Every structure is written in C-alpha cells, then in structure tokens.
Amino acid sequence: DEAAVEETHLSAWEYYPKERRVVMADNPVTRNNRLVKLCLEEGARFPEVIYPTVRDDSLADFQRIFRLIDEGKASVSADIWFKATAKNPEHCERISYTSLYDENGNLVKAVGISQDITNEKMAERKYEQAFARLEESRPNTLGSFRMDLSENRVLESRSTHKNVLLLAQEGTVDALFSS
Question: CB burial class (10 A; 0-12, 13-18, 19+) of residue 89?
C-alpha cells in the first residue's frame, strides 16, 4: 500500500552487483527522490554514482556495504549521512541489504531498503550534547547511567572509576542497585 510506504519513509530497490545497476520500486518515496534519479540515469554505475552525495564522514561506511555484499555477506546495514543540496537539507538513512543467491550459491542480487532516520539521529546528538554538559557541570560524580526501567536494562554507563563501570556490566538495573 502506497500510504504505508509513504508513512514509514521507506525506499526499496534491487541491486545487481554484476551489472552495477539498481531497479527501484515505484512508490511515493522513490518517485521524487534525487538519489533515485541519479541511479536511473543512462549508464549510471551503482553505487559509484551516489558517492558525491554521501557526506565525507559516511563514505567509508557506504563503500563497506558494497564490499561486504561482493564478499558474500548475506545481510549488511549502515547509517549513512547524505550532503545537503539547494533543495534538501542533509539527512541520514539507515540502509540495509539482504543478498539473494541462486541454487549454486552465486549472488544474484541484493534487496536494499532505506529509511530516513534523520530525526532519530538529531535526537541522539541532542541527548549526547546535554549529557556532556551535565557531566562537565558535575566533575565529582562517580558515574552516570542511562537505563530502560521498563526492560530492567542498563543501556549505557560512564565513569572514570573502574569499579563503577564494573557494577554496570551485569546489564540489569536490579543488579546495578543491589551491588
């Protein structure tokens, strides 16, 4: 259903490594996408045609995706930042591929899916900045922990004290507070 695809901001395509080309799914997300238009240009070699649009700090991860596909990895995923243009701000996409093989085990194609996760990444960046300010404002704190109380998990721990970090290694909130 086109509405569901548009709501999730998912793009899907098939990548044919031998021919270095893609076939895009026709949906509202891909229909007006500038990267899709680049991929479909006559003679475009994929993924090389996309390299100029990828931010410098994401290019190695983007290239690694295709190296791993070529090496036979069954699935691969990475978060890739794309450069801003006159019409579009910079954005981050979670790109995932699943490779499909013939009966002899030869790679036929890889099915690709991407989802715009820019808002998620911006929220992470904002959290990290706030956390850094909090740590700077309290230099005598033994440690800081980020927890998911509904799942009883310690998600992250930070400390300059080895023993405090050891307490959090168990991974559960109960274990952390019973120590």
Answer: exposed
Q: What is the pLDDT of residues 61-90, one digit of tens each?
A: 999 999 999 999 999 999 999 999 888 899
Long-range CB pairs of 141-148 (<8 Å, 24+ gap) are 143/168, 145/176, 147/173, 147/176
Contact predicate 157/164, CB 8 Å:
yes
Q: What angle do CA 47, 48, 52 make, to 5 degrees?
A: 115
Query: pLDDT tens across 31-60, in order?
Result: 556 676 677 676 778 889 899 999 999 999
Provide the 10 A C-beta neighbour count for residue 175.
14
From the list 110, 106, 116, the residue with the least C-alpha distance to 65 is 110
* Alpha-carbon distances of 81 from 3, 52, 102, 154, rounded to whole Å: 25, 12, 33, 28
